[in-house]
Amino acid sequence: MSIDIKSSYDIFKIQQSCTIAAKILEKISKHIKPGISTEELNSICHKYITENQNAFPAALGYCGFPKSVCISINDVVCHGIPNQKTILNSGDILNIDVAIVKDGYYGDTSKMFCVDTENTKGLHLCKIAKKSLYLAIKSIRPGIKLREIGKIIQQYVESNNYSVVREYCGHGIGKNFHEPPQILHYDAYDQEIILKPGMIFTVEPMINAGSRYVYTMPDGWTVKTRDGSLSAQYEHTILVTQNGSKVMTLRSYENILI
């Protein structure tokens, strides 16, 4: 497997795209409220990406995906399609997944939001999903096996009686939206890949409150938990540095502490 080692110029350009993607999640947060449609949230993101940042939403048209961001609510695991009929309600949890391309370089990130009132079960699931990502990030450094990322996530999530979705994974990113290697979020064979400085990839665990099993809706995109349980996901784009790692999509208010 050929894994691209990024040049300093590549890293600079990918960082620009990642910074934009992170800003979009910051900007959209104030619009997360009961009564707003996912289509309106999509439109706000699209306008900010294209008009304010002179970039392009990577999801739009990707393999036929019809919208600029993915918005996945409650039991939707990933790839939720924004639309006028889907309205946010108090207590909903939702993931907004933003990927952008600027000057031929990609950045990709997502986070969870809780609508208006607190959903205790949903918030706990989100907390575990986010911490599983943070634990994985803390482990990333040159010389470790790729599979350590998934092993750490799986052990932490399952110790909290949640499950890890196995059908979807993180991925290399750079001049292409998806590149090798695949980043599995559970302990699995990794083709003996060892992390090296200059590798850039996403880590994006999808965590279910019930079983790990999922299914795809007739629209060909929307993935839901098979048992109807809640699902949560957090995603960052990560650079392997000489001594550890750098979160390229870190939001301005975010502090990764374990």
UniProtKB/TrEMBL annotation:
Tell me the cofactors it needs. Co(2+); Zn(2+); Mn(2+); Fe(2+)
* Peptidase M24 domain mapped to chain residues: 13-242
Q: Which GO terms describe its molecular function?
A: initiator methionyl aminopeptidase activity; metal ion binding; metalloaminopeptidase activity
Instruction: List positions binding a divalent metal cation 2.
Output: 108, 171, 204, 235
Residues bound to substrate are: 79, 178
Report the catalytic activity: Release of N-terminal amino acids, preferentially methionine, from peptides and arylamides
Q: How is the cofactor bound?
A: Binds 2 divalent metal cations per subunit. Has a high-affinity and a low affinity metal-binding site. The true nature of the physiological cofactor is under debate. The enzyme is active with cobalt, zinc, manganese or divalent iron ions. Most likely, methionine aminopeptidases function as mononuclear Fe(2+)-metalloproteases under physiological conditions, and the catalytically relevant metal-binding site has been assigned to the histidine-containing high-affinity site.
Q: Which GO terms describe its cellular component?
A: cytosol
EC number(s)?
3.4.11.18
Under the heading CDD domains, the entry gives: MetAP1 (cd01086)
Q: Which InterPro entries match?
A: Creatinase/aminopeptidase-like, Pept_M24, Pept_M24_MAP, Pept_M24A_MAP1
Residues crossing the lipid bilayer are none
Keywords, alphabetical? Aminopeptidase, Hydrolase, Metal-binding, Protease
Q: Which residues bind a divalent metal cation 1?
A: 97, 108, 235
- What is this protein for, i.e. what is its function? Removes the N-terminal methionine from nascent proteins. The N-terminal methionine is often cleaved when the second residue in the primary sequence is small and uncharged (Met-Ala-, Cys, Gly, Pro, Ser, Thr, or Val). Requires deformylation of the N(alpha)-formylated initiator methionine before it can be hydrolyzed.
Q: How does it assemble?
A: Monomer.
Q: Which HAMAP family match?
A: MetAP_1 (MF_01974)
Q: What is this protein called?
A: Methionine aminopeptidase
* Record organism: Wigglesworthia glossinidia endosymbiont of Glossina morsitans morsitans (Yale colony)
Q: Where is the organism placed in the taxonomic lineage, from the top?
A: Bacteria, Pseudomonadati, Pseudomonadota, Gammaproteobacteria, Enterobacterales
